[in-house]
Specification:
four-stranded antiparallel β-sheet, 18% helix, elongated, WD40_rpt, rRNA processing, WD40/YVTN_repeat-like_dom_sf
């Protein structure tokens, strides 16, 4: 740009500034100017740097400021003392940054690099002394970071254990989205079972379908749906540590679904055993056994790996219900006589027997994980809790008035779940060891219809309830889980 054009542009900018804000050069000779005049000068200078040379504004009349503040004339600007104080503060900040940026040391803790600044800690102590009540009394100065972390972990674990002590009277359950909301069953839910990992739940139904759901409580995505054309499912259980699912019903054959290979196989030969009517069914992964009760009341033992018949256990009276005792080689059974038989599945013989004189026609049985309790249900609805070692009844619960055919202890034996499939909302939770029923579930707003199946996850964090309408309700137990 030529010198002549530059001067023309400068004159136009000065003219524009003078028209809009007044001339900035009027009081140039004065040593002190008002705040409003300094603002006008600054704005005119910025306009001078940003205006394009094509602007040519010639207003018809002189523009005046829209408002005027009388206090602007009293503003004297920044004094020399203020400037010295500001410079001193900036100098201190620079020295502080320079000091804190030295003597840094990097350490690795749990796979993460941590930079330790020793001068920063010292400077903070000087600028902001720590209060006496906030100081940590460390008597043993030889403790390392690993020791402190281990101590913290043990403390957290102890608090967690304390928080898992189930209180009496009231149980806190949170209703989540239905497990099978994406694909509702068309008939009654006959079996629900959690994968050992607790993230997947299988749902078997008399509509001949097996569904697998991701049990997260939010989406509950359906992962798989298998239809068996010739098998209305009565029981379905995970086996081989969750690698397979075995499905059985009132048929001569069973189906095995392999989760790894995504294949379905059919078992047709079990030494010509009649299983036209399946009464009870249970699985033990540690023992690698599947046990079921056939129409005659005998207990069939099947190897999980080969799916071959192993042995029959024949009780004196026909069995109606069976259950493995967790972490042992024992199986318990009960029947119409009301007596409880304890079987050693390795030796394949009955090792103990006791009976409840006041109860007949037992239809369900369960064993607690701490090996202290057995529970039996009867056609009258009475549920009896037994002392497993002393072989004596501890409590008879009469909260159910119809056949109490569903029983299950939770993983730490602090809760017993019981239900009857013959009456609506006939579902109760029992506190152990007080043997009292939680009074707040089901409440008047809870409607589960006729419960046909339920299951508690291995860590007691989730509970699924299936009913005769094809719904599978999912609940979270607040005392065991924080999602």
């Amino acid at each position: 740009m030529s010198k002549k054009n530059s001067n023309v542009l400068k004159n136009r900018n000065n003219e524009l500034t003078s028209l809009l804000f007044g001339s900035p050069f009027k009081n140039k000779t004065k040593t002190t100017r008002s705040f409003s005049e300094r603002v006008k000068t600054k704005q005119s200078t910025s306009e001078k740097n940003t205006e394009k040379p094509t602007i040519n504004i010639k207003p018809n009349k002189q523009l005046t400021p829209a408002w005027f503040d009388e206090d602007d004339d009293d503003f004297e600007g920044i004094t020399e003392d203020d400037q010295i104080s500001q410079n001193q503060e900036n100098t201190n900040e620079k020295n502080f940054e320079k000091t804190t940026n030295t003597k840094k040391k990097t350490k690795t803790l749990n796979g993460e690099k941590i930079t330790i600044n020793r001068n920063l800690a010292k400077t903070n102590e000087i600028k902001k002394p720590q209060r006496k009540w906030a100081k940590i009394k460390n008597k043993d100065k030889t403790k390392t970071n690993e020791d402190l972390l281990a101590n913290q972990t043990s403390t957290s674990s102890s608090l967690l254990r304390l928080s898992k002590k189930l209180p009496k009277k009231m149980i806190s359950l949170t209703k989540l989205k239905d497990l099978n909301w994406q694909s509702k069953n068309t008939s009654a839910i006959t079996s629900v079972d959690f994968h050992p990992g607790g993230e997947i739940c299988s749902v078997g139904s008399s509509d001949r379908t097996l569904r697998l759901f991701q049990c997260d409580g939010v989406k509950n995505t359906m992962l798989k749906k298998i239809t068996f054309s010739d098998l209305p499912i009565k029981e379905s259980k995970f086996c081989l540590n969750g690698e397979q699912i075995i499905c059985a019903g009132d048929r001569q054959h069973m189906y095995i679904y392999d989760l790894r290979s995504d294949n379905v196989s059919k078992i047709t030969q079990l030494m010509n055993k009649k299983i036209d009517q399946l009464k009870s069914f249970c699985v033990s992964d540690p023992l690698k056994l599947i046990c079921l009760v056939d129409v005659s009341g005998s207990i069939l033992m099947i190897d999980q790996r080969s799916k071959q018949w192993v042995k029959d256990l024949v009780p004196p009276m026909p069995a109606e219900a069976i259950s493995f005792v967790p972490n042992t080689n024992k199986l318990i059974s009960t029947g119409k006589s009301g007596e409880i038989l304890v079987w050693d599945v390795r030796n394949r013989q009955c090792v103990d027997k006791f009976e409840d004189i006041g109860v007949m026609n037992s239809t369900s049985i369960a064993a607690s994980g701490n090996l202290k309790y057995y529970a039996t249900g009867s056609t009258s609805g009475v549920v009896t809790i037994w002392n497993a070692k002393k072989r004596e009844p501890l409590k008879s619960l009469m909260n159910l008035t119809t056949n109490s055919n569903l029983l299950q202890f939770n993983h730490d034996s602090q809760m017993l779940m019981m239900a009857s499939s013959e009456k609506k909302n006939a579902l109760r939770f029992v506190h152990i060891p007080s043997f009292t029923v939680f009074s707040n579930f089901p409440d008047p707003q809870t409607y589960v219809n006729k419960v046909t199946s339920f299951n508690i996850s291995n860590d007691s964090t989730k509970i699924v309830i299936g009913n005769n309408s094809g719904n599978v309700y999912l609940y979270r137990n607040v005392y065991y889980q924080k999602w």
